[in-house]
Amino acid sequence: MNTSSAVLHAVDFSAASRLICFNKPYGVLSQFTAEGRWRGLKDFIDIPGVYVAGRLDADSEGLLLLTNDGKLQARISDPRHKMEKTYWVQVEGVPDEAALASLRQGVQLNDGPTRPARARAIPQPEPLWAREPPVRFRQSIPTSWVELVISEGRNRQVRRMTAAVGYPTLRLIRAAIGPYSLDGLAPGSWRG
User: Fold this and answer.
1) Is the pTM value of this prediction over 0.90?
2) pLDDT tens digit string along 146-184?
3) What is the 3-state secondary structure (H, E, C) of 83-146?
């Protein structure tokens, strides 16, 4: 048997390509194994052979995609493909038009400038589930919501972007990745 036929026999061609949309709750890692105080995906998804396509921090919520298709996983998570990610961001304060314009132009972070983003003030998303633990509130400082659409995915990028324009993130929910969205998914549930 030559090497190329040995490789062909090692690949399972019978597995159909699968994509899972999961509404990741706060406090859950983008990996199956729990670590410290953070839970893992195995508490919610018991499907062998699927892997996370892109990450979402434990202190962020919302859409996480998983797949058994390596090419699809690369297309979703590789910034070169510029798959847009839509976030609902609760910030401290009420961003003015200058702050939103800065986000739209791209902001300077310690690891370089971001690509231009789409940014707009939005009302609180509906329906919105309660977060455990709840977001901290200060009576003297109002909060508001911004929808931010980016096409890259640096470490804690959205949080760093809102802080760079003077409005720290209090709550971060990823609502969509390209054509995939949270629509109809309660926290901790999945479809696919």
Assistant:
1) no
2) 999 999 888 899 999 999 999 999 999 999 999 999 999
3) CCEEEEEEEECCCCHHHHHHHHHCCEECCEECCCCEEEEECCCCCCCCCCCCCCCECCECEEEE
Rg of the chain over all Cα atoms, to the nearest angstrom:
19
3-state helix, strand, coil in the chain (%, to 5): 20, 30, 50
The owner of tokens 């003030």 is 121
- Whole-angstrom Cα distance, residue 180 to residue 184? 12
Helices 157-164 and 97-105 meet at what angle, rounded to 10?
130
Catalytic pick among 12, 46, 57, 111: 57
- The yes-or-no answer on residue 78 being catalytic is no
Using CA of residue 134, residue 136, residue 138, residue 142, what is the dihedral sign? negative
